[in-house]
């Protein structure tokens, strides 16, 4: 009885310490001895700017009953004791294990098909509102358990891998703004339900100034029974980049794992990432990002052999590519980590030490956009590696639009991209600037980021291209570039989308706008009229279309003659502007409507 009374007294004495630590903010900057010594300004300007008390509110044990606080304190004391003694933590059931009907909606990752035409007026209103608010089918999501089961999507070889018992723990940081209740909680529970408890130091939910009622008091009350989950709330809208910095500023784990707020982690998702960071703290790793269908929430996955890598185009937009042959030869098995030039940016894990060493995120970037490429370039150029792990799978809802609105007159994606170009891309930045006629706009002061690059002694962007992404088409090799303007009617330029999603779409003409964008084209030495990975393709039918460049000439080989004609070599026809201002292919006749002005360079295309 005396021993129990003594334990209770110790717990009671510990409560104020735990209570205050739960509502305070503490940022510890790590400067490992084998890294370049950096000051606070270098390591965490973004974190320091966001840790101020007037912009932060944390919730953990606040407003709990006395018995609940005692129970939480006892758990934490035991956890701290085991960690201090170096004992492996007991692998019991994770927080939130839940059983439900195995044949329920969406179980095993199955789709939930909603026939909106069979809904009642009230149900149809909810259905439409869900799409409007979230840009995915919230109505279907709400029918699925927040603990829904998923199939084990790993390759068999992955299931046979044995990971070390001692791995670094992680703080999982999930930023959200007005997220749907079911999607957010399914993200949280997929982490808790499918992760070894000893590896989850905490889950930090960063609420970026949500105004949906369910994300206030109801969320706070719901999370009371999950001591590993805490909420950090901003006092104004910060955007994804600064919200992530805020999450990092309060994180305690050795590894920071970032997830979006509409994800589902599959079995065995975490161990491969922590194991790679345990091997080398300079490894930045991402899971294979599987697709959660935005309409049915169907979990769609692929095998390790079909893993894609990240790239980018000269609009500084992220894109996916198949694994190049050089990387396939370097690896011995399909399940081996894949080196990737860039990452999508929403889901990744990074050592907290290395993140701080790299300078975290650029605090001068706003909202979101460009931060994924900037961190990718910085990782490779400053001593790290970026890998995609075929044995780690996380599903993600890919929305076709953003449901959020920002009151700003600034093109934030362009501003962020110019900042990264100014700091990291050296002479290659001009290829990006050509896309909008070098109208950089206001992008802020980048002197601090340039000083960081110099202090870290990072490599050049040419090194990055030569060693990390040699497959990238370099616009400097182009024979001609810029707008393609018709001589017969000089108000019109060739115009068209050229990304992978636009494959098969018709190339048209529109009024010239001198802004680059969809009117910026390049003529390669191989005779391709292209923008990045999309080439003009003509098969002899009615339309010129955009199609992925295949480097095999044929339908994609053009000749820009000294007479300013654009001749398709295979069909011997010329690009023509019709009387009603449509783009067509016709027999070459030398007319003004077949003459096109295009800024030439000194090289000649091969004929």
From TrEMBL:
It is a single-pass type II membrane protein. The keyword Disulfide bond applies. CDD domains: beta-trefoil_Ricin_Pgant9-like, pp-GalNAc-T. One of its GO terms (molecular function) is polypeptide N-acetylgalactosaminyltransferase activity. Its cofactor is Mn(2+). InterPro entries: GalNAc-T (IPR045885), Glyco_trans_2-like (IPR001173), Nucleotide-diphossugar_trans (IPR029044), Ricin_B-like_lectins (IPR035992), Ricin_B_lectin (IPR000772). Residues 481-599 form the Ricin B lectin domain. Pathway: Protein modification; protein glycosylation. Belongs to the glycosyltransferase 2 family. GalNAc-T subfamily. This is Polypeptide N-acetylgalactosaminyltransferase. It comes from Dimorphilus gyrociliatus.
């Amino acid at each position: 009885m005396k021993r129990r009374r003594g334990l209770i007294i110790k717990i009671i004495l510990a409560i104020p310490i735990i209570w205050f630590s739960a509502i305070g903010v503490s940022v510890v900057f790590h400067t490992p001895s084998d890294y370049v010594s950096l000051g606070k300004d270098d390591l965490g300007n973004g974190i320091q700017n966001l840790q101020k008390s007037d912009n932060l509110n944390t919730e953990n044990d606040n407003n709990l009953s006395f018995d609940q606080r005692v129970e939480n304190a006892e758990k934490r004391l035991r956890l701290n004791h085991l960690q201090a003694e170096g004992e492996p933590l007991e692998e019991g059931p994770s927080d939130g294990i839940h059983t439900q009907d195995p044949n329920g909606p969406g179980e095993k990752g199955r789709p939930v098909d909603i026939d909106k035409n069979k809904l009642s007026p009230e149900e149809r209103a909810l259905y439409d509102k869900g799409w409007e608010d979230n840009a995915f089918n919230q109505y279907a999501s709400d029918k699925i358990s927040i603990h829904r089961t998923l199939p084990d999507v790993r390759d068999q070889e992955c299931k046979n891998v044995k990971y070390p018992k001692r791995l670094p723990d992680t703080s999982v940081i999930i930023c959200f703004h007005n997220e749907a209740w079911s999607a957010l909680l399914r993200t949280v529970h997929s982490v808790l339900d499918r992760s070894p408890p000893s590896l989850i130091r905490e889950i930090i939910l960063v609420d970026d100034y949500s105004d949906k009622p369910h994300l206030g008091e109801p969320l706070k009350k719901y999370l009371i029974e999950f001591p590993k989950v805490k909420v950090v709330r901003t006092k104004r809208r910060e955007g994804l980049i600064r919200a992530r910095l805020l999450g990092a500023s309060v994180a305690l784990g050795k590894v920071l794992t970032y997830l979006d707020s509409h994800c589902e982690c599959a079995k065995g998702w975490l161990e491969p990432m922590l194991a790679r960071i345990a091997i080398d703290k300079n490894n930045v790793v991402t899971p294979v990002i599987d697709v959660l269908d935005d309409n049915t929430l169907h979990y769609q996955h692929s095998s390790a052999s079909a893993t894609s890598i990240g790239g980018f185009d000269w609009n500084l937009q992220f894109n996916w590519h198949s694994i190049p042959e050089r990387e396939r030869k370097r690896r011995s098995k399909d399940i081996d980590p894949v080196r990737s030039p860039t990452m999508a940016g929403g889901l990744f894990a990074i050592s907290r030490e290395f993140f701080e060493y790299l300078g975290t995120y650029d605090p001068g970037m706003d909202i979101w956009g460009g931060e994924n490429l900037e961190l990718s370039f910085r990782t490779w150029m400053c001593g790290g590696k970026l890998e995609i792990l075929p044995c780690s799978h996380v599903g993600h809802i890919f929305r076709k639009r953003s449901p959020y609105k920002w009151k700003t007159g600034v093109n934030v994606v362009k501003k962020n991209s110019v900042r990264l170009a100014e700091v990291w891309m050296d002479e290659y930045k001009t290829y990006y600037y050509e896309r909008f006629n070098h109208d950089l706009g206001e992008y802020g002061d980048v002197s601090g980021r340039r000083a960081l690059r110099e202090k870290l002694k990072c490599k050049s962007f040419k090194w990055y291209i030569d060693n990390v992404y040699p497959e990238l088409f370099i616009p400097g090799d182009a024979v001609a570039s810029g707008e393609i303007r018709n001589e017969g009617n000089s108000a019109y330029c060739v115009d068209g989308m050229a990304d992978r999603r636009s494959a098969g779409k018709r190339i048209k003409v529109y009024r010239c706008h001198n802004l680059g964008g969809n009117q910026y084209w390049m003529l390669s030495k191989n005779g391709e009229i292209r923008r990045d990975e999309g080439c003009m393709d003509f098969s002899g039918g009615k339309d010129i279309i955009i199609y992925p460049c295949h480097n095999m000439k044929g339908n994609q080989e053009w000749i820009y003659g000294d007479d300013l004609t654009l001749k398709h070599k295979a069909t011997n026809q010329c690009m023509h502007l019709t009387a009603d201002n449509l783009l067509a292919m016709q027999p070459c006749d030398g007319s003004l409507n077949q003459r096109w002005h295009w800024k030439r360079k000194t090289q000649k295309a091969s004929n």
